Amino acid sequence: MTETASGPARGSRTKGSKATKGLRIERIHTTPGVHPYDEVEWAHRDVVMTNWRDGSINFEQRGVEFPEFWSVNAVNIVTSKYFRGAVGTPQREVSLKQLIDRIVKTYRKAGEDYKYFASPADAEIFEHELAYALLHQIFSFNSPVWFNVGTPQPQQVSACFILAVDDSMESILDWYKEEGMIFKGGSGAGLNLSRIRSSKELLSSGGNASGPVSFMRGADASAGTIKSGGATRRAAKMVILDVDHPDIEDFIETKVKEEEKIRALRDAGFDMDLGGDDITSVQYQNANNSVRVNDAFMKAVEEGGKFGLTSRMTGETIEEVDAKSLFRKMAEAAWACADPGIQYDDTINHWHTCPESGRINGSNPCSEYMHLDNTSCNLASLNLMKFLKDDGKGNQSFDVDRFSKVVELVITAMDISICFADFPTEKIGENTRAFRQLGIGYANLGALLMATGHAYDSDGGRALAGAITSLMTGTSYKRSAELAAVVGPYDGYAKNATPHQRVMKQHADANTAAVRMDDLDNPIWAAATEAWQDVVRLGEKNGFRNAQASVIAPTGTIGLAMSCDTTGLEPDLALVKFKKLVGGGSMQIVNGTVPQALRRLGYQEEQIEAIVAHIAENGNVIDAPGLKPEHYEVFDCAMGERSISAMGHVRMMAAIQPWISGALSKTVNLPETATVEDVEEVYFEAWKMGVKALAIYRDNCKVGQPLSAKKKEQEKTEVTAKTEATIREAVEKVVEYRPVRKRLPKGRPGITTSFTVGGAEGYMTANSYPDDGLGEVFLKMSKQGSTLAGMMDAFSIAVSVGLQYGVPLETYVSKFTNMRFEPAGMTDDPDVRMAQSIVDYIFRRLALDFLPFETRSALGIHSADERQRHLETGSYEPTEEEVDVEGLAQSAPLAQELKAVETPKAEAAAVVPAPQQAHTSAELVEMQLGIQADAPLCFSCGTKMQRAGSCYICEGCGSTSGCS
């Protein structure tokens, strides 16, 4: 892609000290004399983004200009997230050309100012090639570049920050302030609290220290406040504690205890939903927690030995604990609430290029950036599918040469950005300029593997992923060495030259030892081997411009902006996706990677059509006509009938890690049925395989009772039962009371409601007394004569008899809401978007239809209109101009006038159910499979988010839960 003035950069040799400084840039995609913008067809689009909950418009900008080939989702996200200027003003950007120009022209000017290019012609080629790559979605910078570069505001280019805190009140207060400033800018930060003395140690004044867990409360409250103050995404943060810290058990248990609180408060009627009024009373919810373990601890776990917890002040052992028991507590906590994650300290520091300048103690919130304290990293990710050459007949290859040239282009641009970048604190600015950490990575790995006929969990898939990763990082460090010859090595290189070169040789040795598998990965390994040879040779001669080169980030918003099917190193979510259409509307489509994979595997077009049709109808490949069972694994996804095993995720991480400077943003998903032993296996085997860090997430663990709470819950139930029995006996002794059944008249008002819960359809008929509230309920969920139909009939009769004998409806609502069993998930009811079970939905709907506002509000049940009113006014209470709720107590729904009809039990089947709509691929998966993906609803537009690395991404509007 580039050359030094004295020769080509690919394998270049700077010819002595007389060589002219400056890079010569060769063209990759562009044509001399033709601007990249002139080679594509442009179109004008209207971007109107609505909130599906109430139809309100979240964002609107009409007439924006984008290339014809850009997807609706990508246009919407880039327009709403990255265009600068107030909407409706002349300053507002209206074209992708303006957005790309303000970035690439800034990079070109800085490159010229800091003497990166050999001539103005090279600078122009650099600008055009960078514009082409962004225009064609070949790569993307991280979000802060799109937000800030070329604008009057501070030009912050980094998304990832690592802070430091010492054992002093001044340092702790600085931590709060610095973290807050980073959150304000929409970025995330992480730090290690292990320098703070434990609660088991004394202060100089003689009292006991508070301990790091205590100070975490203040930082958590600060993050929550800044989040609610109007940030575009939540305050993303990572908190780490070393395993030998005396407060490690308290740290491990922080979130487990809080999850017990959430469940108890929700059962008591408080609003504990995401974004609810009362969730803020629960602590430690704004951070990812991770335990930093070392080899000594893991070996003690392996051998069943003791492990010492050491004083922060003296280094002496305060107490010894059983290593296996402590490891078990970590696994139990992660099983119960997904925290803490785990980081492997010795593995991390074994690959550290700058140990003479300090240890690696912390990471960013998603655990992919790991380097010195008080530093930052700017990221960029390549779209791997753009480098797959496919002739449509199953003949495929990876474009090694073009990939290498694009890597060189991107690394050059990323390094230039540090020259003009602004930073949130002076310390971070000084250290980042001194070490110049970069984080090149990629997205769409899962799609690439499937398209090439490789199972995600296969030797061939891991070999291809490893080869691409090795080539990317090897080429990046080669370019870094060439940049060092032009503009000098990073300031800290001289002090760290020996360890930096040692780490380069470790990468090269791992490349040599890697297993080659097939015709796709072999050419990539060969190019990677050549790149690493150049790295070692040029590094010894020139040094390196950058202390770090690569990470694998979540690629949340930028992945959607590049129209990627998969994020980061994640596998595909599902085989059938949700797709928005130009002009409005949507459709579900089978992934385009599926036909490519089938051609690679040797299937004929007629077979491919039949298999694709089967997938479109069933959502999976099981029993697809003509598909060989041995090929099923190629189409395994993160969710669904054939989901990838937890160890399959870990093995992929281990296959990539040896050629990544930092680490990998990855959450290992486990099914709800996974055991604590499964979590222990993941954490232990990841250490054995050389992974640097990971977190686990067991489906539904955020709403299920943690292990430590089960016994308490059982005891609580027994006590409650004994108390109720005692009260009942006392009442019966005082007065003989026998309830009287009040039957409904022959003609009674009624409502029939069709509903869908987690893909299961049903009908509910609720009949009421003409003047006195609900009197009977009928439910139909399946064909007459089936077991489910019989159970629903019996349940309906039991509830109806209870109502007629005077059992208050609110008693049923309080008992049956939040009851959890399958089917569960999304519903087609705008007032009750999520239900934990059919019973949960039924009684929420009945509460909305028949209970007065005050009663159901105390139970935390509100309509969509009331929730919207709360967002706008801070109150759920209706205004005087709206319907009188008191007058409608124990009456029909607000939107429907009741009519006197005979009990329409037999007529319920004639009601046509309302169509269920998906707004994202995650919701579509739930509709097809009848399962619930444990992901939050988007704060911006209300749609179900999907996991992206360690974070969540909204496919509807591009908002993230903390990643770029």
UniProtKB/TrEMBL annotation:
Residues 1-22 are annotated as: Disordered. Keywords: Cobalamin, Cobalt, Disulfide bond, DNA synthesis, Nucleotide-binding, Oxidoreductase. GO terms for molecular function: cobalamin binding; cobalt ion binding; nucleotide binding; ribonucleoside-diphosphate reductase activity, thioredoxin disulfide as acceptor. It catalyses: a 2'-deoxyribonucleoside 5'-diphosphate + [thioredoxin]-disulfide + H2O = a ribonucleoside 5'-diphosphate + [thioredoxin]-dithiol. Residues 158-697 form the Ribonucleotide reductase large subunit C-terminal domain. It is an enzyme of class 1 (oxidoreductase). Coiled coil: none annotated. Residues 748-848 form the TSCPD domain. SUPFAM superfamilies: PFL-like glycyl radical enzymes. Its cofactor is adenosylcob(III)alamin. Pfam families: Ribonuc_red_2_N (PF08471), Ribonuc_red_lgC (PF02867), TSCPD (PF12637). Residues 47-137 form the Ribonucleotide reductase class II vitamin B12-dependent N-terminal domain. InterPro entries: RdRp_reductase_class-2 (IPR050862), RNR_2_N (IPR013678), RNR_lg_C (IPR000788), RNR_NrdJ/NrdZ (IPR013344), TSCPD_dom (IPR024434). Its EC number is 1.17.4.1. CDD domains: RNR_II_dimer. GO terms for biological process: DNA biosynthetic process. Belongs to the ribonucleoside diphosphate reductase class-2 family. Catalyzes the reduction of ribonucleotides to deoxyribonucleotides. May function to provide a pool of deoxyribonucleotide precursors for DNA repair during oxygen limitation and/or for immediate growth after restoration of oxygen. This is Vitamin B12-dependent ribonucleotide reductase. It comes from Streptomyces tabacisoli.
